[in-house]
Amino acid sequence: MAKPVVILVGADKGGVGKTTVTRALLDYFIAHNVLIRAFDTEAPKGTLRRFHPDITDVVDVSSTSDQMKIFDTLAATDVTVIDVRAGLLATTLRMLRDIGFLETAKKNQIAFAMFHILGPSIASLDEIAETATFVSDANYFLVKNFINNTTFFEWDPATYNSYFKQIKGAQEITVPKLNEMACEQVELASVSFVSFVANKLATGAPASYSFVLRGYVRHWLGTVWADFDRARVMDIVTPEVQRKAATR
Amino acid sequence: MSEGGAAGLGSRGTTKHTMERRTPVFIVCSPLPHVGKTLVARLLAEYLHADGRQVAAFDVNPDDFALAEQLPDLTATADIGDTKGQMALFDQLIIADDVPKVIDLGYRRFDQFFAVMQEIEFEAEARRRSIAPAVLFIGEPDQRSTQAYATLRERFPGLPLVPVLNAGAEAITRTRSYMRPKYAMAPLQIPLLAPALKTTIQRSESITAAMDKLTAANMNQLRAWFRQVFLQFRELELRLLLEELKPALQLRA
User: What is the pLDDT of residue A133?
Assistant: First the structure.
């Protein structure tokens, strides 16, 4: 019986492109034929669900019944991704600790991974220190998101390294800039990155997106996935599950 | 901006080579200014048009839309300096409508054009839709030109890279071999043309109109020159077609 995998994607503040990274991550696992479910905690709206409606549920993490919904489905799929509402990362981790989830992870009954999308300010680094205490048994990925290019990281490398080293086995991931118009068009189309590149509508019917913009997205996604490969993101999933996925 | 018409082609799913559907895209370019690029682009467009075919020309020279001025009915202006401009050009170029395309690529946009082309993987998609891009590189005896040719060859190994040599340039590179890059294909040679006759072409809206302005002697000279150039274009088309057919022919051997 394969260990359930839970991935948390969080950021200390909004606007750092957290949900964009989640979308690229979902596409990555789907492309590898890994069975995946996502929970969007931006209740009631849910930005993530717009792009991956088939696999995403909107939940309120403070509601007990929604908490049950998440954890009861863990065993039903290979990977569960929780897109944590901006600014609620520490709160969510505390909640997870309180309901015993972190304990279960510690006992190696659940594989736990964290994607921490970093913002440009120093306060973002402080959050690493805070979350580090919760996630000592997790695969920890620090993500610098340059997708909007406006991000200029004001912390110097030395400061960053000191935080980085506090977390055992932490991996760094860089998400490069994506052409603004391409970004906009994918948002407007309300489809996954992979669907946009494949020129498909949400229904799966052929679309007529710009070839140029599709090319920019394809190139960007390829670069992001290559960095996921380099950081060994797929290792979150056990070899057994990877093998099963490969045969699908 | 959308691609329109080509939606059905990609879904046929076979890799069978079809001779009936083919859309050549000629990229006439040079990393240097004032090498006679617009003249070559214009001649190629007129050659294709004279053959009874439709042709679509694109003038990518933000400083000076000279081709658009000379051939207004066949030419659209394009500036790839921003995303919108890139979409306007490349989304058109990827349409497999059997209409040959000629791009007059200004030196200022040389790097950007090939950067975009590479990033969006234009060649791969073009191949899938029987669109045949080819570069007509106006070679000059200059280090920048030699370097640019070599770099294009490295970055786009599958792309036909035809050197176009003006008679004067060819004479120099023959004597200074270090200026001559390793040509991927046999060059096109543009013979010498008297400056006055060149000006006459530039000031005329068509070849016939140009002829009308000249004395009998000059007309004969110009006609002979056109014939040489057009023969080269015809030979070039055949050579390019042969290159594409090679894999299929070898399989049958």
Answer: 73
